[in-house]
Specification:
Number of strands of chain A: 9
Number of helices of chain A: 8
Number of domains of chain B: 1
Helix content of chain A: 25-40%
CATH class of one domain in chain A: Alpha Beta
Order of helices and strands of chain A: EEEHEEHHHHEHEHEEH
Radius of gyration of chain B: 26 Å
CATH topology of one domain in chain A: Rossmann fold
CATH architecture of one domain in chain A: 3-Layer(aba) Sandwich
Shape of chain A: globular
CATH superfamily of one domain in chain A: P-loop containing nucleotide triphosphate hydrolases
Oligomer: heterodimer
Helix content of chain B: over 70%
Structural class of chain A: alpha/beta
Largest interface: A-B, 28 and 21 residues
Strand content of chain A: 15-25%
Structural class of chain B: mainly alpha
CATH superfamily of chain B: MetI-like
Largest sheet of chain A: 6 strands, mixed
Radius of gyration of chain A: 18 Å
Distance between the termini of chain A: 40 Å
CATH class of chain B: Mainly Alpha
Chain lengths: 258, 270
């Protein structure tokens, strides 16, 4: 399934009459099985873009088209920046939430939870509550929960940015190997340049205020990738190029921060 | 403190200090209080008419239990509390969830609640008796009103306090609005609703005793007031001890209910 984002704009109007242009004329495609990363400084509207694609917010102008969607799978599922797990549900009950609301039988849900928890290495924690888990484990549960509904497009909104550097590095590698096994389309938002280049087939660089696409760069790195990929001169060159593109915006973002 | 020149400074392990557990300290304090009380009464420092010894109170309680007098009063009070609490909690929970899910309803309901909440419910008893006559109904209705307010306010707060991120996550996984309410809003509000029940239970106990002191021939409130009038201090003390036990039992019972219904909240439960 191909997803086309066509001339999307999103304008927020504050009661004071101030208008904030979060997205301006953003167009991009995600091909079937493609891993697209969206890179931008904070406040560039990249999370807004994801929410619109997820159907959680309506655009002010433009549209999102899902070409030939699968008949019985949801179009998207979101992994949020904070884990957003349901604290009153065990790990297993969290993972099967999407199946439960679709009326999948308990036996099938149990089988699915086993398969998914094995995929993210958390079989032993199936009956724990989220507050028993570390940040990295929670985010793995959130990924399993999103994968459980087998969405045509997986949306990830800075899923690892709240983690410590080591957990983040490990989960990036896990996500790489998971994606290389499943080849599910992913739209992945991040402000971390290395992450965008390491994970993506293409990096979409956005500017802030208004949120616009500045550049799209294909990532010329072979797969499978791992931590050694980051030593590749092509990796280093692309990271540097992206940094030059967003440096000015990042400076402004820092000066703006409340 | 001045340091002697050249002497090495050493930090080393300190053997852990042994402290008695909290339950032991608390139990010891209560035990000591009862012992002192017993001594004061036995030594005749205070006449038994004003302060009967704990053993005398216990003997009185056992006499009242065997004659059935104690159970008659406890049963009457508990019956009123159960009916009033049940009514107030059901109505408060239902209305609180409704008010929490609609801004328009809250705009209508909030001023009404804010205006009636501060009235001490015992002050309503004469009016309720005027409307509903004497007997059990006005007491039950007054207790229901007393329970209703903390429950409705907490239920509303619980629903409003649902993390919007949880709602988004549920929607992104395909949940419809009915499923969002049943599977996200209600479980997320449940601990706050149960905290409202705990407040309500305390108020119910307060109101039942007050009502029984004003207008009743049974119940713990009646027992206490009547024993005081007749200077039966032992019976009066039995009534007070029963209230203390009932209060403790309701707190423990509701805690157990919370542990059962909301097992994910296990930390921070005192």
């Amino acid at each position: 399934m191909r997803v086309r984002v066509e001339s999307l704009s999103k304008v927020y109007s504050a009661p004071s009459g101030r208008r904030l242009v979060a997205l301006e004329d953003v167009s991009l495609d995600v091909a079937d099985g493609e891993f697209v990363t969206i890179l931008g400084p904070s406040g560039c509207g990249k999370s807004t873009l994801l929410q619109v694609v997820a159907g959680l917010e309506a655009p002010t102008r433009g549209r999102v088209v899902f070409e030939s969607p699968p008949p019985d799978a949801p179009l998207t599922a979101v992994v949020f920046q904070e884990h957003a797990l349901f604290p009153w549900r065990t790990v297993r009950e969290n993972v099967t939430f999407g199946l439960e609301v679709r009326g999948v039988t308990a036996a099938e849900r149990l089988a699915a939870s086993r398969r998914l928890l094995a995929l993210v290495g958390l079989e032993a924690f199936a009956d724990r509550y989220p507050h028993h888990l570390s940040g990295g484990m929670r985010q793995r549960v959130a990924i399993a929960r999103a994968l459980a509904v087998e969405p045509a497009l997986l949306l990830m909104d800075e899923p690892f940015s709240a983690l410590d550097a080591q957990s983040r590095a490990l989960l990036q590698l896990e996500l790489l190997s998971l994606w290389e096994r499943t080849r599910r389309s992913i739209l992945y938002v991040t402000h971390q340049i290395q992450e965008a280049v390491l994970l993506g087939d293409r990096v979409v660089v956005m500017t802030r205020r208004p949120g616009r696409i500045l550049a799209v760069r294909p990532v010329p790195l072979p797969r499978p990738r791992d931590e050694r990929t980051m030593l590749d001169p092509a990796f280093v060159a692309l990271v540097d190029e992206c940094w030059q593109l967003i440096k000015q915006d990042a400076r402004e973002a820092m000066a703006d921060a409340p | 403190m001045p340091r002697e020149g050249g002497a090495p400074v050493v930090y080393e392990s300190i053997p852990p200090r042994r402290e008695a557990p909290a339950w032991l300290l608390g139990g010891a304090a209560i035990g000591l209080l009862i012992l002192v009380w017993e001594a004061v009464a036995r030594l005749g420092w205070v006449p038994a008419l004003f302060l009967p010894a704990p053993t005398a109170v216990l003997a009185e309680a056992s006499r009242m239990a065997r004659s059935g007098e104690l159970w008659r009063h406890v049963g009457a009070s508990l019956g009123r509390v159960a009916a009033g609490f049940g009514l107030g909690a059901v109505a408060g929970t239902a209305l609180g969830i409704l008010l929490g899910s609609s801004r328009a309803l809250w705009a209508v309901g909030n001023p009404l609640i804010a205006a009636t909440y501060p009235i001490p419910k015992i002050a309503l008893l004469p009016l309720i008796i005027l409307w509903l006559g004497i007997g059990e109904t006005p007491k039950v209705v007054m207790i229901a009103l007393g329970v209703f307010f903390p429950v409705v306010i907490n239920a509303h707060a619980g629903v409003r306090g649902t993390d919007p991120l949880m709602v988004k996550a549920a929607k992104s996984l395909g949940a419809g609005s009915r499923q969002v309410i049943l599977k996200v809003v209600l479980p997320s509000a449940l601990p706050t609703i149960l905290a409202g029940y705990r407040l309500g239970a305390g108020i119910a106990l307060l109101l039942v005793v007050s009502a029984e002191m004003i207008n009743a021939t049974t119940g713990i409130g009646f027992l206490i007031l009547n024993s005081g009038d007749l200077m039966l201090t032992g019976k009066l003390m039995v009534g007070l001890a029963t209230l203390s036990l009932l209060g403790l039992a309701s707190t423990w019972g509701l805690r157990a209910l919370e542990a059962w219904l909301a097992p994910w909240k296990e930390e921070g439960r005192g």
